[in-house]
Amino acid sequence: MIALIGLLIGVALGLLLQPDVPIWLQPYLPIAIVAALDAMFGGLRARLEGVFDEKVFVVSFVGNTVIAALIVLLGDQLGVGSQLSTGVVVVLGIRIFANVAGIRRKLFGA
Amino acid sequence: MSAAQDPHRDRPLDESGDGTAGADGDGPWEEPAGLRGLLPLLRPGGWRGQLAVGLLCLLLGFAVVVQVRSFDRDTTFATARQDELVGVLSDLGQRSERLRGDIRELEDTKAELERDAEGGTALKEARERATAYGLLAGTLPAEGPGIEMVINDPGGGVRAVDLLDALQELRDAGAEVVQINDVRAGVDTYFIDTGRGIVCDERVLTAPYRFLAIGDPHTMTTALNIPGGLVKTVQGAGATVLINPRAKVTVGAVRSP
């Protein structure tokens, strides 16, 4: 419940404040968002399966975003930033699909 | 915290595929909860944990919206490479420089026109413009730096399309006034192959074809001589080409208005 309210408040804040993404954050924010989405779907699925734990969620959320951003940073330093970003997005996308599949199975049994 | 509780580790990735994988899945089969299964999620649980989760979700929603909006704003140059951006920038710089020059000229003209009560300057301006348009339309004789190009065609291998290429190449290279033999080229000049030879604007052209073009001699010579360009094509047809840059080319032929 609080998560849903937080999500809505966040969207509303973003729409109201319309802040600019700082230059130094621009390469990392999209990847971090995908990582966070993965963590969120994972949390939702864990909740549905009854194994949800706030601490795990917070740690995985923060850890995922930070590691995703670090990988992109490392890629930029090595000169393969765009390829590594693509790789990270593909891996996270697969995980999101897996999590959504779990959610779907829990909810609809299909 | 055991690994089994990690939301991402408790199941392998093999469920990411098609929807049929779930029906015979590896986990214990449970009665599907349907959309009602979502309802318990809305019940508040432990306060602190819930609050942290809510905060993170707030952050996520905020970040998503910010990112989407910033990406919406500028997609034109975000994906361009560095050298493209440099090219665009220098193009813009040149254009603004040119436009600034135009502004200066127009302001000078405006000042002169304002000072001049009798209309002398206006008349002069109008005459200058009439001369410029007359040169472009081909109704006035012209004189200036340019080139003379002679295409000797003893074998008769040159076609109308070659002469048209020559004219277009000269125009592309900045020729303002062009004369072919005794025909002044205009906007509607054409070339046709006929039994009598090549007809240009209702007059028969006979070899050698002599082009007089006024413009930058160096640019035009370079343009005609590029590998695979006009000179090579015409030479391939058995003709010879002579190009003379000249400080003064006189174009005497005119078109009837």
Automatic annotation (TrEMBL), chain A:
Belongs to the sbp family. GO terms for cellular component: plasma membrane. Keywords: Cell membrane, Membrane, Transmembrane, Transmembrane helix. It is found in: Cell membrane. This is Small basic protein. It comes from Actinomadura hallensis. It comes from the Bacteria. The keyword Transmembrane applies. The chain crosses the membrane at residues 27-44, 56-74, 80-98. It is a multi-pass membrane protein. InterPro entries: DUF1290 (IPR009709).
From TrEMBL, chain B:
Residues 89-123 form a coiled coil. Belongs to the UPF0749 family. The chain crosses the membrane at residues 47-66. It comes from Actinomadura hallensis. Residues 1-30 are annotated as: Disordered. The keyword Phosphoprotein does not apply. The keyword Transcription does not apply. Keywords: Coiled coil, Membrane, Transmembrane, Transmembrane helix. Residues 1-14 have a biased composition (Basic and acidic residues). GO terms for cellular component: plasma membrane. This is Uncharacterized protein YlxW (UPF0749 family).
